[in-house]
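User: Please fill in residues for this 558-position structure.
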């Protein structure tokens, strides 16, 4: 009898307890619940350098007035949490799952770490998630695929590993997906092709491999594709642009892609940026690229392209940068192609097999800022009309077969910062008015030529000069003591000339004023006199000091 009564009481107790728990579980969430969830997040913050949460998130104030918190106007619940750019450090607690009315969650640019809790999948109203620029680790949770309203997901610049979760393809409303700058591996899931609302897809700077799924190129809403700095291989579909009418950015550089560049690219008629550099593409530059009249950036460098630069490239009147360096493109260099490009600023054609003379017509590219033609087979003179490139900042013509003197007009370009003519057959002398009209010159590379005459004292006008490289020429006369006025000088190479030292003063002593000097080379010159003890006072930053084969007396051994 006692045993029966005990069973009855036990059953009754369990029944009542279960009913009480059920009532608690079914209680509607409230603003107080949201406050408790956020206070749990606050407890997981281990660093709050500005003490924003410490002083503002308190029980004495309404949660809707807390910094970073926005409540809904329709419901008394937390709708948005924005803690971006607060330098916070900590982890994300699973209690955030109780923010059931949350629409936007932004933790951008903090120091959050650890794995993301699976419980975030319960926040079914979420439309916006940005965890960009944090230190989150582990796999990207597949639970993101359970957020039916999500249209923006940004996980850039974290330390996520593993593969791209296939369940992300369930996010039919997703418009923006950025997984760049993590450590993701494996292949790009073909299932992502189901994201038919997607406009932006960035996965650059990971370790993704395999071919680019052709389904990606069937997402007709895409505006930007960024796959650079991965290990992707295979060829591009010949019809890749047949279904991409809105694409403006296609970035595939720094992968292992091969085959020819599809002529079908011309159907991506809105393209503004096309980056295909540093892959293994072969064949010629398709002339059809000339139909991309909105194109501003074209990167084709570091491939195995051959042939010539097609004349149709000249149709690209919005072009700002044209880069096709490190290929096997050749023929006589024809700058008439670029004459109608009124916006063109940068041309990179170094390390190709271009031949012939430098055309004077290049001066008509009036906005040109950078011209790099190093390591080709160019011959003849440097046209004096180059001096009419009034916006030119960088001119690199190294290791060609150019001859004659350097046009003095080059030194009249007020914007010029870097001039490099190393390894040609240039002769003549330096102008006596160096840097009078080019006060911003930072680097002057003239080594391995046949230039002669004195180094002009006007070199002291080049107050911004950090690099002066005149080695292996035929310069003669005294090494000017005015070099000491170049207070920013870091590298001075005078090796292998016919330079001497003035008997009454020492250029070495003057160089003690150059506190940033890291390399000094003046060997193989017929220097006379004595190198003073002040050589010991040269910059403490000096790392390289060469003075071989000098017929002089030393107070210090060399």
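Assistant: Residues filled in for all 558 positions:
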């Amino acid at each position: 009898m006692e045993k029966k009564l005990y069973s009855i009481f036990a059953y009754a107790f369990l029944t009542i307890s279960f009913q009480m728990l059920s009532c608690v579980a079914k209680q509607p969430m409230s603003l107080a619940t949201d406050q408790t969830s956020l206070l749990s997040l606050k407890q997981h913050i281990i660093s709050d350098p500005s003490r924003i949460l410490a002083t503002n998130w308190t029980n004495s104030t309404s949660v809707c007035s807390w910094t970073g918190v926005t409540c809904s106007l329709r419901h008394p619940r937390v709708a948005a949490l924005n803690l971006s750019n607060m330098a916070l450090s900590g982890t994300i607690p699973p209690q955030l799952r109780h923010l059931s009315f949350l629409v936007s969650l932004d933790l951008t640019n903090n120091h959050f770490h650890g794995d993301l809790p699976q419980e975030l999948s319960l926040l079914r109203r979420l439309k916006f998630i940005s965890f960009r620029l944090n230190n989150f680790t582990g796999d990207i949770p597949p639970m993101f695929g359970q957020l039916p309203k999500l249209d923006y997901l940004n996980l850039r610049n974290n330390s996520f590993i593993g593969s791209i979760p296939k369940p992300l393809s369930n996010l039919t409303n997703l418009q923006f997906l950025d997984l760049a700058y993590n450590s993701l591996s494996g292949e790009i899931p073909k299932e992502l092709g189901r994201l038919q609302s997607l406009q932006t897809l960035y996965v650059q700077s990971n370790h993704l491999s395999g071919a680019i799924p052709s389904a990606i190129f069937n997402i007709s809403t895409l505006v930007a594709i960024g796959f650079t700095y991965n290990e992707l291989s295979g060829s591009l579909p010949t019809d890749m642009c047949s279904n991409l009418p809105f694409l403006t950015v296609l970035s595939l550089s720094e992968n292992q892609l091969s085959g020819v560049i599809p002529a079908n690219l011309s159907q991506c008629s809105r393209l503004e940026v096309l980056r295909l550099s540093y892959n293994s593409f072969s064949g010629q530059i398709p002339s059809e690229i000339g139909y991309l009249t909105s194109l501003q950036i074209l990167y084709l460098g570091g491939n195995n392209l051959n042939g010539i630069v097609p004349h149709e490239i000249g149709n690209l009147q919005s072009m700002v940068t044209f880069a096709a360096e490190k290929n096997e493109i050749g023929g006589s260099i024809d700058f008439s192609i670029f004459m109608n490009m009124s916006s063109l600023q940068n041309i990179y054609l170094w390390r190709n097999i271009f031949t012939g003379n430098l055309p004077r017509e290049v001066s008509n590219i009036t906005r040109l800022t950078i011209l790099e033609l190093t390591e080709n087979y160019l011959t003849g003179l440097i046209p004096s009309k180059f001096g009419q490139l009034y916006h030119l900042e960088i001119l690199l013509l190294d290791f060609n077969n150019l001859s004659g003197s350097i046009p003095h007009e080059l030194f009249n370009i007020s914007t010029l910062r870097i001039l490099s003519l190393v390894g040609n057959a240039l002769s003549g002398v330096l102008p006596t008015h160096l840097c009078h009209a080019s006060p911003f010159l930072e680097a002057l590379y003239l080594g391995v030529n046949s230039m002669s005459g004195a180094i002009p004292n006007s070199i002291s006008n080049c107050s911004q000069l950090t690099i002066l490289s005149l080695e292996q020429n035929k310069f003669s006369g005294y090494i000017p003591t005015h070099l000491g006025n170049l207070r920013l000088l870091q590298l001075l190479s005078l090796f292998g000339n016919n330079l001497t030292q003035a008997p009454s003063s020492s250029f070495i002593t003057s160089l003690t004023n150059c506190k940033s000097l890291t390399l000094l080379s003046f060997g193989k010159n017929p220097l006379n006199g004595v190198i003073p003890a002040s050589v010991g006072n040269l910059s403490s930053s000096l790392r390289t000091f060469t003075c071989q084969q000098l017929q002089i007396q030393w107070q210090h051994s060399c």
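For context: The helical segments are 2-26, 31-43, 52-56, 507-511.
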